């Protein structure tokens, strides 16, 4: 059963637990919690995807224990307050993808979860997990997201053979950790930001997805950002002035691309080259300014939609909708690039915000909250996209 992208409201009905289903998908709606415990009766489910519960009481994970046939389990942003130990992962032997990100899950990561032989994708970011990571993982597990938790200790040796996102935790940067993670990874831990109190930069600008730097008409030098990011990865520049983190897998996509390109001419801009490429994410895309001088900054984000063509084609009905956070404050909810551009594709849109930098660190977060379309122009096509961004010190004239 597929009931996504309909903006249904209210609670998920209890009676669904009496149906005979092998697939249940409730994403892109506006449901309230909790997730009904009666779903535990759906023992034949192979795929369960529920996302973005807006409000209501929190849910438990216990109902999952009867679903021993699951291959895909997504309970993303569902207001779940529980521990992973509530699930007996030894029974979920068919599990290939698990996404419990953006909840309030506490406790430690169980070894039984990481030992699952068929598990390939694991997304547990933006929770309250603590303790050390298990010492071993299954042979198929290659994509792991633990970002934005309270995990600690040393980075396990298996990290060198996996795509692992550990941004914003409490790990120790020692010689063994530095040998298995990208250079500068310690700059993105909670209590060890680089250059704290010793800033080395007053601005930065990035041309997202580009292979070559670009000089903009605003006199900014936009550095290239062609890092090969996947479902659970991050990158920091050699000068450690900025970084980028991506989380998520394009579901049902044949060739889910995180960088998209267009050769078209773009309107409403003097800088068409900035918009040739864009970085896209199916869940969560973050950019970081590292070692900035403290003070107020003007953050400029530049967008252009170019995969939903204008006209009467069915492809023109696609909608890309996401939220924008800067320094943890939501600046835009249900932001739609094309709608903001007057319903036009290939048209530049610029959003500016004045924000404080107090610990020599800046965070820009583009977050897919389940809204928009999922499968236009191709199956599995959704999530935030950005063409370029910059942060410069604010002056009195910047204030609006």
From TrEMBL:
Task: Give any Pfam family that matches.
Answer: Malectin
EC number assigned by the record: 2.7.11.1
Q: Which UniProt keywords apply?
A: ATP-binding, Glycoprotein, Nucleotide-binding, Phosphoprotein, Signal, Transferase
Q: Which residues form the Malectin domain?
A: 204-389
The GO terms this record gives for MF are: ATP binding; protein serine/threonine kinase activity
Task: Tell me yes or no: is Protease among this UniProt entry's keywords.
Answer: no
InterPro entries associated with the record: Leu-rich_rpt (IPR001611), LRR_dom_sf (IPR032675), LRR_Rcpt-Like_S/T_Kinase (IPR051824), Malectin_dom (IPR021720)
Kindly state one GO CC term assigned in the UniProt record.
plasma membrane
What's this protein's name?
non-specific serine/threonine protein kinase
């Amino acid at each position: 059963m597929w009931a996504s992208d309909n903006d249904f409201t209210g609670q998920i009905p209890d009676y669904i637990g009496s149906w005979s289903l092998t697939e249940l998908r409730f994403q892109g709606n506006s449901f309230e919690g909790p997730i009904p415990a009666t779903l535990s009766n759906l023992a034949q489910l192979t795929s369960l995807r529920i996302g973005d519960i807006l409000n209501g009481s929190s849910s438990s994970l216990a109902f999952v224990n009867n679903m021993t046939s699951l291959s895909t389990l997504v309970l993303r942003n569902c207001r779940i307050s529980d521990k992973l130990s509530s699930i007996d992962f030894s029974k979920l032997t068919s599990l290939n993808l698990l996404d419990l990100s953006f909840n309030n899950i506490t406790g430690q990561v169980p070894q039984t979860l990481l030992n699952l032989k068929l598990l390939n994708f694991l997304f547990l970011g933006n929770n309250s997990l603590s303790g050390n990571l298990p010492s071993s993982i299954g042979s198929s597990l290659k994509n792991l997201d633990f970002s934005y938790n309270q995990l600690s200790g040393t980075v396990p040796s298996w990290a060198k053979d996996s795509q692992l996102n550990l941004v914003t935790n409490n790990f120790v940067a020692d010689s063994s950790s530095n040998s298995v993670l990208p250079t500068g990874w310690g700059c993105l831990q909670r209590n060890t930001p680089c250059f704290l109190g010793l800033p080395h930069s007053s601005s930065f600008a990035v041309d997202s997805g580009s292979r070559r730097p670009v000089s903009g008409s605003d006199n900014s030098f936009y550095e290239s950002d062609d890092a090969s990011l996947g479902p659970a990865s991050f990158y920091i520049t050699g000068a450690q002035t900025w970084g980028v983190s991506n989380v998520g897998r394009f579901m049902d996509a044949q060739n889910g691309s995180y960088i998209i390109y267009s050769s078209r001419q773009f309107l409403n801009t003097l800088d068409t080259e900035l918009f040739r490429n864009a970085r896209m994410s199916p869940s969560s895309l973050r950019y970081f300014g590292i070692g900035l001088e403290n003070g107020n900054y003007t953050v400029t984000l530049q967008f252009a939609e170019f995969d939903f063509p204008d006209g009467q084609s069915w492809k023109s009905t696609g909608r890309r909708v996401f939220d924008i956070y800067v320094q943890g404050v939501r600046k835009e909810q249900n932001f739609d690039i094309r709608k903001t551009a007057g319903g036009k594709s290939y048209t530049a849109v610029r959003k500016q915000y004045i924000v404080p930098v107090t610990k020599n660190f800046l965070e820009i977060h583009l977050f897919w909250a389940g809204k928009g379309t999922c499968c236009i122009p191709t199956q599995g096509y959704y999530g935030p996209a950005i063409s370029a961004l910059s942060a410069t010190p604010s002056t009195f004239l910047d204030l609006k």
